Amino acid sequence: MTHSATTESRRGHRAAPDPRQPEHGRRRRSERRGKRRRGRIALLTLLVLVLAAGGTGYWLYSDLNGNIEGVDLDKALGDNRPEKLPTSGQNILVLGSDSRSGANASLNTGKVSGARSDTALVMHIPEGRAQATAISIPRDTLVTRPKCTKSDGSTLPSAKRVMFNSVYSLAGPACVVKTVEQMSGVRLDHFVEIDFAGFKGLVDAIGGVTVTVDEAIHDESSGLDLEAGTHKLNGTQALAFVRTRHGIGDGSDLGRIGLQQQFMIALLSEIKKQDLLGSPTKAYKIADTLTESLTTDSELASLTKLAEFARSMNGVDPSTMETIMLPVKYDTADPNRVVPAEPQATQLWKAIRNDEEIPASAKKSPATGG
Fold it and tell me: How far apart are CA 238 and CA 244, in angstroms?
């Protein structure tokens, strides 16, 4: 090749095809070169964006970080807690708050004063972080509430036979943690709470979540109207899906727990498969939505700590997650309420405490919700 031909090629002019090379071979090499160029351009573009952000990067981080509300469990609960066993397993209490204040007021969730733990489940991630178990606690369960310190510093006395979801409204999330620890004997490492608006925003930010229902669900109270089959739910539909109860089972809280567990697995699966790092805009939108609606224990109350915790759980596969409802039976004095069924509940909590396999007998609930 002459000097002039070489110069022309470097200036971007395409050299004549080599007739000795098959056409499809030349095409594959051209595609590989194009991909490498696009990859370099994307990398350079990302670098420019990071450099251009400059001082705004810290501002964005601080803005999101400041959204998260943290609760110091050690300070709120004191030393009267179950022993932390020598295992790397983790137990997290996940709460869904049904507050109607702030951004939640416009979500067509009814007009109820205060807030309750509309959804409560204990996530057990065993040592090795391979398979998780989610245990739902029915909101209508009658429990013994321990003595708690309220957010204003006053003391809430212990009481028997109170509804589980009332504990949150009377004394806040720390008292819910203390109640679950007392009834289970399980030391909770963390708690995470998200409200209606945060839940809806998360589902919308990731583009919806797909679920399949075997039977049609029509519930005027929650606004859910689904025919049997597969549906991709937006945030509003998803909120109605996890709250509906009049359109399924016997209309009690027990009937909707199955839908909540189904949706949780579908949501976690969707989050896991999405490449958030490939979309900084979507990642920021999700972080902004969540942090405004998130309350955690103080050990998780920052973006850095949340990210570290999420990375440690990366090996957990939502498709293998086991979902269980705390075994309960209908209360003899009030059939609209339930109480933990024995010996199943004791067997279940013992297995969680010791990081052991849960016996099949501990998963059977006399009260099924129809």
Answer: 10
Residue 185: how many other CB atoms lie within 10 Å: 14
**CA–CA gap between residue 56 and residue 368 (Å, rounded):** 53
Cα atoms in the 13 Å half-sphere on the side-chain side of 325: 28
Query: Please, is 47 exposed, middle or buried when counting C-beta atoms within 10 Å of its C-beta (0-12, 13-18, 19+)?
Result: exposed
- Is 180 in contact with 191 (CB distance < 8 Å)? no
Asked if residues 297 and 72 have their Cβ atoms less than 8 Å apart, the reply is: yes
Structure tokens at 99: 């507050």
CA–CA distance, 132 with 154 (Å, rounded to integer) = 37
- What is 276-300 written as a DSSP string? GGG-HHHHHHHHHHHHHTEEEEGGG
Note the pLDDT tens digit of each residue in 215-262: 898 888 888 899 999 999 999 999 999 988 776 766 677 888 888 899
CB count within 10 Å of CB 285 equals: 17
d(CA 144, CA 192): 22
Q: For the CA atoms of 215, 220, 224, 225, what is the dihedral angle to 10 degrees?
A: 60
pLDDT digits (tens, 9 = 90+) for 133-155: 999 999 999 999 999 988 788 99
Other C-beta atoms lying within 10 Å of the C-beta of residue 27? 10
Local structure of residue 42 (DSSP, 8 states): H
